[in-house]
Specification:
Elements: E1 4-8, H1 12-18, E2 20-27, E3 31-39, E4 49-54, H2 79-84, E5 104-105, E6 115-119, E7 124-131, E8 134-138, H3 150-160, E9 165-173, H4 182-190, E10 197-207, E11 210-211, H5 217-227, E12 235-237, E13 241-242, H6 245-254, E14 259-264, E15 277-281, E16 284-296, E17 305-312, E18 315-324, H7 328-338, E19 342-343, E20 358-363, E21 368-373, E22 375-376, E23 382-383, E24 385-390, E25 420-423, E26 426-429, E27 434-437, E28 440-442, H8 443-461, E29 466-470, E30 480-482, E31 493-498, E32 504-509, H9 513-521, E33 524-529, E34 542-549, H10 555-571, E35 577-580, E36 586-591, H11 598-615, E37 620-621, E38 633-636, E39 646-647, E40 663-664, H12 679-685
Parallel strand pairs: 5-15, 10-12, 18-24, 37-38
Antiparallel strand pairs: 1-2, 2-3, 3-4, 6-13, 6-14, 7-8, 7-9, 9-10, 10-11, 14-15, 16-17, 16-20, 16-21, 17-18, 19-20, 21-24, 22-23, 25-26, 27-28, 29-30, 29-33, 31-32, 33-39, 34-36, 34-38, 35-36, 35-40
Helix pairs in contact: 8-9, 10-11
């Protein structure tokens, strides 16, 4: 007559003793809050009686609502029909299994307008089979997740209302901004109270016993939209946009989504990867096979990094390691899953060389992981790989490298005995030397980072006298600050600069990306620049205000500080630009025409800071002394003097986490923290719009 699950919301044992047991029913017919109340046995009765009572909630009805149900929810038959042996009344689906339609990875949006575009969701692909009161939630490798997603199964039964159907969609958990989050889905699977589960349906394969796969996508979408109108909680229809693919992709990436899926409007559901569906990703991520893991000598247990592989032409090949994104809870989970999978020999071709002070444990290739990464190197290795979660819905044997159409693999894969690589024509020695440990970032990573950001970074550093911070042994060892050229330095240009005593000293600057990478080869992590260029050294053109908050200050106060200094500058008819410091505060930068000399420039910056201090004395100070900074933000104006430097846009910081001093828009002030952009994030951001695009088109200047 009914079927489902029950959840007590009191202690069951205590409730039975007390004679009052309260619970929630999640059935096809009985729903909501109920209570069993004990009545003592009457004279002559052997046992107590229990009353089943409905509590007041959204499921309460003012009529006898359940008396109309006289059939079996499994077979649709009445008691009389069951006695007579009549056949089931439930409509069956025309098929019991189906291959999922898969999308090809592409780099460009099709020019034609006969495509539908919808968001790419970050969860488990699920094809749902519904017949009567029976539901199967099948993953791509054929596992039924009905027990894991039972609430969605109940919602699908409500949606179907006795009709047979096969739906295709994604099981997701969204964050507070509405973005689907695979890691949050994994947390839900461990603890269903950790998030709100949603089944986003984007296709229908069968309805009322009819196979719809041969119909056009647009027809199937119309049927699905009508079916899911007023759908129960937990079921969501995936809306689409017809045409406007470039705009859809840009909007998805700007909103922090995973990407978009494009589908030919007239396509049938073939269950193949034939190009009728395409995917464009805002960042790079896919599934990889875990072939082993490392443990550094600083840990006695756990996982330092995962070793990853994919199948190429039937052989399992190594593609790199993921050393970030692994939480303590993830470590415990991974250690448990690795039990029973350990093996003596590596399961892959071309075994990577182990790093100093680490132990490699090889595993049977039976686990798949979702990995986010910045790019593929020329050696077919992942760069900046980060663990997102285990994929139990994917068969490791089906995992291959995702390639866009026409993309070819590099012909020379990694060699385990290489001691150097070439970046921007510069020989990078000891490329595997670890410079940052959390996340693990190598010398090669830093060199390639500066090569990749050079187009954005060079306009702010080219032809400017600079100072650098070098950490040749990594940030865990001693680093040093250098403002004069060192013997044998390559890729730099030296220049004599007059100093206060009237004499001259040798300083240096760089002219191109080769200079950046040459410094990276020497162990340079940070680049700091003057406010003027060498062709007009005494006329500065870039003013920087560094907001340096007191220890422990709330971030909202720091953000208000950036807004306040912007408002002061706006009153002075000066446009300003925002960047993260990679540390505690923000930098507000003002581009100027090189007209005023250093004294006027320096004095102007000081007076701006003093106006801040006078207008809001409880918030800001212009005094450099630590004693004056208690519970305040120091408006550091002193970087605007001759010979002073400030961290360059796009420069790394030689601090834990490899954060970046990153240009951002003013609209991002309240969403991006001062240390909120990592090296991997920066590489993803430079693929989008330039937040400082008009920086050098300003014609503003200080009045002399």
């Amino acid at each position: 007559w009914d079927e489902g699950v029950w959840e007590p919301y009191v202690n069951v044992e205590e409730g039975l003793i007390k004679g009052e047991l309260k619970f929630v029913l999640k059935g096809r017919r009985l729903k909501g809050k109920w209570a069993l109340v004990r009545w003592k046995a009457k004279s002559g009765e052997a046992r107590d009686n229990w009353l089943l009572l409905k509590e007041k909630d959204e499921y309460v009805k003012d009529i006898d609502g359940i008396s109309e149900f006289i059939t079996s929810i499994r077979t649709g038959r009445t008691m009389e029909q069951i006695e007579r042996g009549e056949n089931e009344k439930i409509t069956k689906n025309p098929f019991n299994s189906a291959d999922a339609q898969l999308a090809k990875l592409v780099n460009n949006v099709p020019e034609r307008e006969d495509w539908l575009y919808e968001l790419k969701y970050d969860g488990f692909r699920i094809i749902a089979f519904v017949e009567g009161n029976n539901v199967r939630l099948l993953t791509r490798n054929g596992n039924d997740y009905i027990k894991r997603f039972h609430d969605i199964a109940l919602a699908l039964i409500d949606l179907a209302a006795g009709r047979a159907m096969v739906l295709d969609g994604e099981m997701v958990v969204a964050d507070v901004q509405g973005r689907t989050d695979f890691h949050a889905l994994q947390n839900y699977m461990k603890n269903p109270k950790a998030g709100n589960l949603t089944y986003i349906v984007f296709d229908i394969l069968a309805l009322d016993g009819e196979d719809l796969r041969a119909r056009s996508l647009i027809e199937r979408k119309e049927i699905l939209e009508a079916l899911t109108k007023n759908a129960p909680e937990g079921i969501y229809y995936s809306r689409y946009v017809r045409g406007s693919g470039k705009e859809s992709f840009a909007a998805a990436c700007e909103a922090g989504m995973e990407g978009i899926i494009g589908k030919k409007a007239d396509s049938v559901y073939s269950g193949t990867r034939n190009g009728d569906w395409i995917k464009l990703k805002c960042d790079k991520r896919q599934e990889f096979i875990i072939v082993g893991y490392t443990l550094s000598d600083k840990k006695t247990s756990g996982v330092s990094s995962l070793l990853l592989g994919v199948y190429e032409d039937g052989e399992l090949v190594y593609v790199g390691r993921a050393g970030t994104g692994i939480s303590n809870a993830d470590m415990q989970m991974l250690e448990e899953k690795f039990k029973g999978l350990k093996r003596q020999n590596p399961p892959i071709k071309l075994v990577p060389k182990s790093r100093q002070r680490e132990i490699i444990t090889w595993l049977e290739p039976k686990l798949a992981a979702e990995i986010k990464f910045a790019e593929w190197t020329h050696d077919n290795l992942l760069r900046q790989a980060s663990f997102k979660g285990i994929r139990t819905d994917k068969d490791p044997k089906d995992i291959k490298r995702e390639k866009t159409e026409g993309e070819k693999l590099a012909e020379n894969p990694i060699k385990s005995d290489e001691n150097s690589i070439v970046v921007e024509g510069i020989n990078i020695t000891n490329p595997s030397k670890v410079l940052f440990e959390e996340p693990e970032i190598t010398k090669e990573d830093v060199a390639r980072y500066y090569s990749m950001v050079s187009e954005r970074m060079m306009p702010y550093v080219k032809g400017r006298v600079m100072s650098i911070v070098r950490c040749p042994k990594g940030i865990s060892q001693s680093c040093f600050y250098r403002k004069h050229p060192s013997p044998g330095s390559k890729g730099i240009v030296t220049i004599p600069v007059t100093i206060g005593s009237g004499g001259t000293e040798e300083y240096f600057y760089i002219e191109d990306a080769t200079g950046l990478v040459s410094e990276a080869q020497m162990g340079t992590l940070e680049f700091h620049v003057w406010g003027s260029r060498i062709n007009d050294l005494e006329k500065p053109d870039m003013m920087v205000f560094d907001l340096d908050p007191d220890e422990g200050m709330d971030l909202s106060i720091v953000r208000q500080g950036a807004q306040d200094i912007r408002s002061i500058l706006t009153e002075l008819s000066l446009d300003s630009y925002l960047k993260t410091s990679g540390g505690k505060g923000y930098h507000v930068v003002v581009p100027l025409k090189p007209a005023a000399d250093w004294n006027i420039f320096y004095d102007f910056a000081r007076r701006v800071a003093e106006v801040m201090e006078q207008k809001w004395p409880e918030r800001y100070t212009s005094n450099v002394r630590k004693a004056k900074r208690t519970n305040k933000i120091f408006i550091d104006w002193m970087r605007n003097g001759r010979g002073a430097t400030s961290i360059a846009p796009y420069s790394l910081r030689a601090r834990k986490g490899a954060k970046v001093s990153m240009p951002i828009t003013w609209d991002e002030l309240y969403t991006v923290a001062p240390d909120g952009i990592s090296m991997a994030d920066a590489l993803l951001r430079i693929a989008g719009n330039d937040p400082w695009e008009d920086f050098f088109r300003n014609n503003q200047m200080l009045k002399i």
